[in-house]
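Support request, please re-run this one:
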Amino acid sequence: MRPLLELLKRRPPGNWSLRPNDSVFDALKTLSDHNVGALMVLDDGKLVGVFSERDYTRKIALAGKSSKDTLVRDIMTAQVITVSPQVRTRDSLALMSQKNIRHLPVVDGETVLGMISIRDIMNDIIADHEMTISHLEHYITS
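Re-run finished. Output below.
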């Protein structure tokens, strides 16, 4: 399995993020605009949280609050689990499964490199398996 840095390099450029003082409504619009399920919350470039669809549904929709009147900092997940860019995809998948999370920020020291999703990891694992199958088929027919 590959290091996460390789997955990040293959992605289109752009790490979308929010600021703690953004409204939840604006955060939802950003999620929708980029077709993602979570965004990193950065304060002066420092990772301070993650905002996800889960945060919205559990802390706004089900609580009867207004997304226009609530700030991201009030509902974001502040205890963020992160990984280094050298961590391999299989280990990341195990961590995500163990912690019941779907998004994992990748940081190198204090530098935020990006965020991977469980979909990114599954796509990588599937591609790896397809390549193995192709090599085996070629070996058998040669």
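The chain has one domain: 4-141. The beta strands are 17-18, 38-43, 46-52, 103-108, 111-117.
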